[in-house]
Each structure stands twice: as C-alpha cells, then as structure tokens.
Automatic annotation (TrEMBL):
Keyword terms: Cell membrane, Membrane, Transmembrane, Transmembrane helix
UniProt record, GO biological process: copper ion transport
Primary location class: membrane
Entry annotated with the keyword Kinase: no
Organism phylogeny: Bacteria, Pseudomonadati, Bacteroidota, Flavobacteriia, Flavobacteriales
Name of this chain's protein: Copper resistance protein D
Segments forming domain Copper resistance protein D: 46-140
Subcellular location field: Cell membrane
Database matches in InterPro entries: CopC/D, Cu-R_CopD_dom
Membrane-topology annotation of the record: Multi-pass membrane protein
Single GO cellular component term: plasma membrane
The organism of origin for this protein: Flavobacterium granuli
Transmembrane segments: 6-29, 50-68, 88-111, 123-144
Amino acid sequence: MDHHLLLIIHLLCAALWVGGHLLLVFAYLPQALKTKDQNIILNYEKKYEAIGMTALVLLVISGVLMAYKYNVSIEYWFHFDSPIEKVVSTKLLLLLLTVAFALSAQFRVLPKLKNDPNKLPEMTFHIVAVTLIGVLMLVFGTFIRFGGF
Ligand code: HEM
C-alpha cells in the first residue's frame, strides 16, 4: 500500500486513540472521581471500546508497514542501532506496555470496579498511564520525519 495512504490511516487512528483517551481523562474521569460514580467511566468504555481497539489495531498494522518501507523490518527491531529503528523499537515497547495495562484493566480492575467505587483510583492510574503512553507514541512518531532519534 502507498506510504502516504498508510500515513493518513495512521494519523486518523492516532487521533481516535489519543483523542479518545484525552477526552476520558479531561472530561469523564474528573466527573466520575468527583461523584464517585464508576458508571460514568464504564459507560464511556462501553461506547469507546470497539472504536479504540479498531484504531489501535490499525495503528499497529499501518505503523509496521511504514516501518518496513523505511527498511526497518522485524530482524532489526530492538537492536537500537539506527535513528529510525530506535523510534520504531521504542514505539513497539510502548505498545507492549499499553497491551499490559489494557489486559490488567480488563481482567483485574474492571470486573471489580463494576460493584466497587473504591477501585476508581486504580482505574484512574491505568487510564492516565495508557493516555500518557499514547501521547508519547504520538510525539515519538513525529521524530521520524526529522530522521529519528
Ligand atoms: C498509540 C499508538 C501510536 C500513535 C498514537 C502513533 C502516532 C504517530 C504519529 C502522530 C506519527 C507522526 C506522523 C508524521 O510525522 O506525519 C507517527 C509516525 C509513525 N509511526 Fe506511529 N503511532 C502509534 C503506533 C505505532 C506503531 C505500533 C508503529 C510500529 C512500529 C508505528 C510506526 C510509525 C512510523 C514508521 C511512523 C513514520 C511515518 C512517516 O512519517 O512516514 N506507530 N505515529
């Protein structure tokens, strides 16, 4: 697929992934914490989940395909040898961290949060962490057009 088209898909999905999480952090999370009402978060997650997961999957596919177009194929990943490969490998590590937080939220926190508002601080930590990681992935992505780091 054409690199330009992959980049457009990547940027649209970055907008959905990072934007969706920033909206949660700045609009819904403060309200949920103030009123101790976990349903505000649970209802948002229910609506956002399919959009967010689709965006993340497309980010990975388009990102990996663009990495290949920069000749950063799988055998070079995690060597931290060249500037563009360093960005790609860092983004892949952050992706693994995102998946770890998502699994922890899904299987450890969310089932308990349904009946227990005392789990809100733990959920807040997961949401803020995933949001900050998303912003970092966006910022690191912008380094590629300047030759990497
Ligand atoms: C939350 C996940 C991610 C976000 C928010 C994100 C965001 C971005 C952004 C904003 C850019 C800048 C594009 C530009 O300068 O015009 C970018 C570029 C890039 N990203 Fe990602 N990205 C994510 C995940 C990934 C993953 C998993 C990979 C795979 C290794 C990847 C590989 C790339 C590559 C190769 C570019 C350079 C595209 C180019 O300028 O030609 N990204 N990303």
